[in-house]
Amino acid sequence: MVAANQNRKRCLGVLLAITATVAAPNTLTASAQEGKISDSKGISLTIYNQNFGLVRDSRQMELKNGINYVSCQDVAAKIDPTSVSFTSLTAPNQVVVREQNYKYDLIDPNTILNKSIGKPAKFKQFTGNGSIVELNGTLLNGPSATIGSPDGGTSEVSQGLVLKTGNGIILNPQGQVELAELPAGLVSTPSLDWKLETDKGGSHNIEIAYQTADINWKCDYVAVANSDDTKCDITSWVTLDNKSGGTYKNSALKLIAGDVHKVTNEAQPQMEMAMDAAAPAAPPPPQFSEQSFAEYHLYTLAGKTDVNNNETKQLSLFNAAAVPVKKLFVLESGDNRVYYGGGENGDKRKIQIKLEMQNSADNNLGMPMPKGKVRVYKKDSDGALQFVGEDQIDHTPRDEKIRIYLGDAFDVVGERRQTNQEQPNEHLQRMSYEISLRNHKKEAVHVQVIEHAYGTWKLVAQSHPSVKKDSHTFEFPVDVPANGEVKVTYTIEVRY
Predict the structure, then answer these.
(1) CA distance 106 to 186
(2) What are the tens digits of pLDDT across the range 22-31?
(3) What does the alpha-carbon distance between residue 109 and residue 158 come to, in Å, rounded to a whole number?
(4) Is 416 helix (H, G, I), strand (E, B) or coil?
C-alpha cells in the first residue's frame, strides 16, 4: 500500500474529483422549445489532398412550430464553423437557422482548472506512510494561459498552479484536486447549437455539411521492375490520415485530387509479386472509380468504410501488371550535379538513371494518377526484392509520360569539358565542347546528353545528330558500346 501511494505521488500531476452534480450542457429555460435530433443516419466524406475534408451528415430531427433549440453532438473538433450548411430535405424552405453556436470548450483537467480560478479547491496529498494531507484554499492561477502576440494573434503558454490558503500562498501544489462544481459552459464533445424557426412542425430529414481541417490523403506507388527493366507491376495505395477530432463510421468515401484554391487566414505495406514474361491475367477491378470533376479528379470508393479519429488507413487505388517502361541514362549539363573532379579542364558528372512510362490504357494504366511517391523494387539473382530508388510524381493525367528518377549510374561515367573559346567580335562568341561517355558495363547503353544554351545561338559543328527540344535545350541521343567510350563534340555560336 505504501509503495502504491509513493508511485501515485510520483506519477500524479493533477487529477480531478468533481463532487457537484453536473447539469446537461444544453439546459434550456422552461419557455424554450427543445427540438430533438437523432444520431447520424449516414455520413458522406470527401477528403482533399490539401489537409481538409467535407463532411455531409444525414440525421432526423423533430421540430415544433415556432422557435426550436437543437444541439448537434459529435461534430469534428477541427470543424470550420463558418462553412456549416444546414438543410431540411423534408421542407427546404420552411426551416430557417436564426442563430448558430459552436461549442468546443471540452471537459478536460486543464480547461476545468483554468475556468475554476477564484473558486475553492482542495488538494489531497498521499504521503509515504499511507496518510492523507489536505490543502484547502482558493485557486489563483490555472495550468495555462492565453496571451496576445505582437501580430494580433494569441497562443497558449504553460504556467504553474497557485493556491491561496489560510497560511499563505502555495506554488505548484501537488495531489488530487477536488472542486465543488463543474464550471459552466463545458461540453463533453464539440457541438453545434442552433436556434431554428419553422412553420412546419414534425419530423424532418436534414443534412449538415461542413469543412474540417486535419484530415488528409496521399497516394503512394509501389513498382516492381522485371530483370531487363522493360516492364513493371504497379500497385497504388491511398493513405488516409484523420486528425480532425471526428470519427466517421460507415461513411461513403470520395477523394479529390487536384490543387483547390483556398483563402489562407493570415495570423507502407510490403508487397511481393512474381514477374512473368507471359501475358498476365487481368487484374481485379479497382475498388475506386474515377471521374473528372470541376477541373479536378474525383475517386469514389465502392462500398463504405470507417474513418476513425487519430487513425491512418490504407486502401488500394489500383493495380497494373506488366506496364511497359523504358530505362534511360541521362547526362544534363545544367543540372549542377558535379560530384568529383575531372582534371584540370573537365568535370566528371553523375549520369542519372530514370524509368519512363506512358500513362495510357494500352500500357495497362490510363487512370489519372494523383501526385505521390513512387518506390521502385527489383528482384536480385536470388529472387529477393531489393529497393532501387524512389521519386515524387505530380498529378499526371492519362496519356502523359511519367519519368521516375531512381539514382545515379555506377558504371557509366560522363565527363564534360570546354575545348575552345573565341570571340570574333563584341557581339559573337564561339565555343567548343567535348563530352566523353565511358561505359564499364557488359552491355551497351543508350545515353541522352542534354545541353542548354541561351541568347541567340546555333550549332555550327557537331559529331552526332542533335535534336532541338526548345529555345534553350538541345539533345544528343548516343549509343555507348559495352566497355567502350564515345566522345560527343560540338561548336556553338552565341550572339548577344
Answers:
(1) 6
(2) 334 444 443 4
(3) 14
(4) strand
Q: Are 162 and 170 in contact (CB under 8 A)?
A: yes
Predicted local confidence at residue 344, as pLDDT? 44
> Alpha-carbon distance 270 to 219, whole Å?
15
108, 85 contact by CB (below 8 A): no
d(CA 27, CA 30) in angstroms, rounded, equals 9
Rounded to 5 degrees, what are φ and ψ at 124?
-100, 120
Residues 224, 232 contacting (CB under 8 angstroms): yes
pLDDT tens-digit series, residues 103-142: 776 667 877 888 888 899 989 888 878 788 888 999 988 8
pLDDT in tens, 324-357: 999 999 999 864 333 333 334 557 888 999 999 9
Mean pLDDT of 379-399: 94
Place of cell 526548345: 470
Q: Which three cell numbers stand for residue 292?
A: 473528372
Question: In the 8-state DSSP scheme, what is residue 167?
Answer: T
For the domain 36-105+187-212, what is the CATH code?
2.60.40
Question: Could you tell me the pTM of the whole model?
Answer: 0.70
pLDDT tens digits, 272-320: 333 333 344 455 567 888 888 888 889 999 999 999 999 999 999 999 9
Q: What is the DSSP letter of 361?
A: G
- Count Cβ neighbours within 10 Å for each residue of 22-32 and write b for 16 or more, e otherwise: eeebeeeeeee
| Calculated CA dihedral for residues 378, 382, 383, 388, nearest 10 degrees | -10
Sequence spans of domains, the chain: 2-21+108-179, 36-105+187-212, 215-324, 326-369+393-495
Question: Which secondary structure element, helix H or strand E, spans residue 9, and what is its range?
Answer: helix 2-11
Number of CB atoms found within 10 A of residue 106's CB:
15
DSSP annotation string for 45-59: EEEETTTEEEEEEEE
Q: Band of the pLDDT at 435, cuts 50, 70, 90?
A: very high
Three cell numbers at 493?
A: 555560336
Residue 372 grid coordinates: 505521390
Neighbours of 141 (CB within 10 A): 18
Cβ neighbours of residue 235 closer than 8 Å, sequence gap 6 or more? 221, 222, 271, 316, 318, 319, 320
Confidence of residue 2 (pLDDT cuts 50, 70, 90): very low
For 138, the enclosing helix (H) or strand (E) is strand 132-141
